[in-house]
Write a structure and sequence with these properties.
- The protein is mostly helical and 220 residues long.
- It folds into two domains: 170 residues, Orthogonal Bundle (hpI Integrase, Chain A); 29 residues.
- Strands 1-2-3 form a three-stranded antiparallel β-sheet, with no helix packed on it.
- A hairpin with a 4-residue loop joins strand 1 and strand 2.
Length: 220
């Protein structure tokens, strides 16, 4: 018989520090491609998913942009009242631009009811899209894409940060994109896999570089 639990003094990790599920790049591509390219809501959802993944927005930040906050000519979107009530200007580049152009030209005119409506992303009744609706559409398209992991808007934000770092981005740049006050917070939102570490060692360790040169000479 053990009269005292020996684990009472063991410090358990905070749930906020536990690793989050991260989509790999192929899963992220499947998710953003899931919405229909023929319907107004599908075009809207594609634009939202590309913006969430391309700009690493918090879900609360994705409902706030007005039409005037997006400048596709300059490739910029203004995020108002982010965490800490701070604004930040983010780049909108590459794959995110085209779905937004399609949405603005073809889908939003069909959704808008009041020409005075300023919101960028609109619901079917023509009002500003709410957080709950954005969360639901992300989950719905994740199921349609056949993703078995639990997906939320934050999953896309986390995936964006992780994939940027895996691609060689500086963590300080990712910190600015995410709107974190400290780089330590950004480190929590990233996930370095053994494969990533192996790639870094192979690329930067002096013995690995010497070994690769010798292997290359032998192959000549």
């Amino acid at each position: 018989m053990i009269l005292r639990d020996p684990t009472l003094d063991v410090a358990l990790p905070s749930w906020k520090r536990l690793p989050r599920a991260v989509l790999n790049e192929a899963q992220a591509r499947r998710l953003v491609a899931a919405p229909s390219s023929w319907t107004p809501l599908g075009k809207r959802d594609r634009a939202i998913l590309e913006t969430l993944y391309g700009c690493a927005l918090r879900v609360s930040e994705s409902e706030r942009p007005d039409l005037t906050d997006l400048d596709l000519t300059k490739g910029e979107i203004l995020v108002r009242d982010g965490k800490g009530r701070k604004d930040r200007l983010l780049p909108v580049v590459g794959r995110a631009v085209v779905p937004l152009e399609v949405y603005l030209a073809e889908a939003r005119p069909e959704l808008v009811r009041d020409p005075r409506e300023r919101a960028l992303f609109l619901s079917w009744p023509g009002r500003r899209l709410g957080v709950q609706v954005i969360q639901n559409l992300v989950r719905s398209h994740a199921r349609a894409a056949g993703l078995e992991v639990r997906v939320s808007p934050h999953t896309l934000r986390h995936g964006c940060a992780t994939h940027l770092l895996q691609g060689g981005a500086d963590i300080c740049h990712v910190q600015k994109l995410l709107g974190h006050a400290s780089v330590e917070t950004t480190a929590i939102y990233t996930k370095v896999t053994p494969t990533d570490l192996a790639r870094v060692v192979e690329k930067t360790h002096p013995r690995e570089r010497t070994w690769k040169r010798r292997q290359a000479k032998r192959g000549q």
